[in-house]
Amino acid sequence: MKTRKNLISVIVAMLLAVTVSGGRELFAQTTDDGTIICNVNDQSGAFIPNAHVMITSNSTGIAVTASAGSHQSYSSPLLRPGQYTVEVGAAGFKNATSTVTLTVGQTQIVQFELELGLATETVTVEASAPLVDPESSTLNTIKDEKTVEDLPLNTRNFNQLISLTAGTVPGNTQLTGSLPITATRGTVANTVNGIGFRSNNYRVDGLDDTENHNGQGILLYPPVEAIQEFRVQTSVPAPEFGHGGAAIEVVYKSGGNKLHGSAFEFLRNAKYLDAKNYFDPAGPIKPFHYNSYGVTLGGPVVFPHFNSGRDKTFFFFSWEGTRKSQALTYLSTVPMPAYQTGDFSAYPYKIYDPLTTTTVGGVTSRTQFAGNQINPSRFNQTGLNLLKLFPSPNLSGLVNNYVYTPASTDRRDYFDLKVDENITPSDLAFIRISHQNSSIYTPGSLPAPALGNQQGTNATYPLWQLASGYTRTMTPHVINELRAGFSRLDTVAYNGDYGLNTAEQVGIPGVNQPGDPRTTGLTAVTLSGYATLGDSGFYYALIANNNWQINDAVTWSHNNHTFKFGGEFLRRQENIFQSSNLHGSMGFGPIYTTDPAVSGTTGNSLADLLLGAPASAGISYVPGTIGKRRSDISAYAQDTWRLTAKLTLNLGLRWEAYPQFPWNEVQNRMSYFVPSLGAVYNVNTPQVPWRSGVQPRYTNFGPRVGFAYAVSQSTIVRGAYGLFYSPDVGEDVGNANPPFDGSISISNSATNFQGAYVASTGFTRPVGNNFPTLGASLFSIDQHLKIPSGSQYNVGVEQDLPSHILFSLNYVGTLGRSLLMEPNINQPTPGPGSVASRRPFPLYGDISEVAGSNSSNYNSLQMTAEKRLEKNLQFVAAYTWSHFLDYGDFVGTPQNVNNLHADYANDSSNLPNRFTLSGIYVLPIGHGQLFGSRLPRVADAFLGGWQLSTITNFYSGLPFTPTSSINTLNGSGSQRPNRIGSGELPSGQRSIHDWFNTSAFTIPSQYQFGNAGRYILQGPSTKMSDVSLSKSFAMNSSDTRSLKLRIDAFNVSNTPQFNNPNASIGSLAAGTITSAGSPITFQRMSRQLQISGKFVF
Q1: Among 70, 100, 392, 396, which is least packed, fewest CB within 10 Å?
Q2: Lowest mean pLDDT segment, chosen from 274-283, 853-862, 988-997
């Protein structure tokens, strides 16, 4: 009851704040529409009152009248992005007309200087629209239709264009294996100004488009051909935008009063067009086929006796299909055949017999196996069966000795229909329905039955989205926007060996349950220094996401103020069947065939496997589907205050509430470990009184303050500060504890081999889903967990240079606070003896606590030069110099929970230097061009209409962390090595065989954490250019029909884009690079060529 009263009190307070400000309505959110402001002056510069300003859409023919404001200008109502004709007239002056392009969310200020004369005379002028924005304090960039369609985009994903903005770091650029299932639909995850990609705020047609499960991507991916344009706000967006990352607004195309459309096809065939991956085996190039095709159609909808003429109802339809088949290249380390007989004599390090273990004075030591050979009588049969699943090497050497090139497939279909209705000149509405369906197969790094850690091998993703909007001009100074929508995304993902009782066949009981095909498959077996066996325990998975939302926006212009008020309600639902470890897992150290008393590398994880004793093991059981629910509520107020002719202040306040943060479960089937009580308790009980496990907070107020000062018409100084909240939209872990989820966790003691758990023991499923807590791995949560927050700030200058080049120089910073981590609060103290006896809570396994103990800071200098299309050329060049520090990755686990400070270091996405260039150049040859303007039509058909475009990236290598291949802690968790030197090699000494100095690191002494920090080394840099060459053919004399032929060359120079090296100190492969680019995400690939044709009418 108290919670509800708090919520009501905050809403009332916001309403009172709006009333005091003079607003008549509250709720507002959407900002994809824009406004045209016309300054109409005579030739002396004096304002002309009583002018008539008519603004007509070039696509729909809809005309509106701009009204006079009190600050000597004429303002339009809210308008959809597009091209408009502005006609200005006044008594005693010649009429003037000009064409103006309005972008998403833009306030376009246009200067008109009228000449004395008769009103019957009309002069077409090039209205002056300054490049600099004299009012905004937000850093943003806009990608228009031509940019989206004409730049070379690998797989034609608009998300790639976001990474061309200063301050962004593209994610998944080195991914060679599988993605989380919800991320495979869209694979470019951008970190923006030190804020993770899960905090990015995607909005499509004014509605939230964020996916619920894991927050890995967005729900609807608009096809390139259906996008009118999109805007990316990277620092201190206006108060109507929540989350802490970039605000990304996408606008779908609308129809017009003339029938128009396109048909297109993009085609690739590696056999004839592509270069091989650097690590592909000898022989013919592996097959790759990519085919993307579709149609768009837009125009008027005429209903006799219902609507009059062609300027009332409009439609836009798009359909696109994509078919892809691609061979992936995996380079792995697999066992030598002799290992199956226990013969490790070819292995360069000694292996030791765990039966000879002695501990004297706290120091444990062992005796070496004679000749590095294990007698087969010592084998554990299950361990041997698992070892035999590995394929034999097909390359020479002990490491990187197996290459596998399986084929992945990807089939996608996109359908969109949008209808716009011009009800009256003051009432506009639209509705859009979109459907997308993806079927994706991603193989693992090893052939069946080994699999190689497959993730969601066979997955389908049907999605439906309904979006609607209504805009009403209530008075010339008050405009209201209403948006409502619904999205549903289903996910069905199967493991690669679904239907096969592989775990049972190799001798691991308790995994494959009779009559339950969801539990079929193989246990995931990780082996230090070797490829992984089995599949990810996250799959089989069934997930259904439902999102309902409504928001409303009011804009009120009064004197020299523009007020915006608003709010939004978003209801998220997720029904999910998925476990984190459905088929079980076993990790082989090695811990038993090492000699802890010997400094350096000893032992072999495959020898531990043959003996059957893992370092750790576990399994989780899920009894059924759970239902997660959450509501996101927000309200805001904003004032754009033109204090003087030169100074504009942007003042705002946003309030957010998440009453069910992180999530509720419909039947309260959640529980958490409570550290102060040392036991697990259900939610909605005296011990965990809140249904979500976390006390709701209703004080999440985020101020936004900014200024823009016009030093001159071509120079603007701007700065801003904002406080943002970034609730993780991914599902929480409260359902992962008993009695609602069964979890078994085993940690073997490195000093007790004879009492160790062995693989052949398998797992015992509790009878009747009566899951015990004793010995289980558990989850805890800080019951007073704060919503993760971040302070953003920027200051800089924007200059309109000659040749209409807009240059900006900005300092941009971010401070992250209360960021999520998952420290293991039951971490065993390093030392001899049983693992459980050294834990704070010895009755349980690892306990991961969801806590806001992470923080970050990001500082950067950002420079951008932009030239909009003029005289055949447009480009954007962006450079970022930055440093990004934090205490851990998103929900990461520190090496030592008792020394978090040791983990303060570079973030995984820290890129000190990054330069991007995107540009389009229309060759000045042919009709209407500088050269050949009078060419005969036949000659112009071949010589004219050529265009070049490029996307070029140069940036520093990603950082990486050295790890220890041998865990000397005798407990759970990861361990870093000791650092005794810098580890860096001079650039001239680096190679794919020795990228860093491995001798600068050593295995830590027994029971000691390593002193090496996180992300202290840097991988290979990226230097590549994608280039497109196209030729347009006019199909008729009026140029209303055309055919464009095009070829795209991705990584045109075929420069190998090497990934980070193996950083497992003590491993034979340490320091070597075994992959290049990310075939999964089509980033940083070897040269690929694409040909296409597009017919436009």
Answers
A1: 396
A2: 274-283
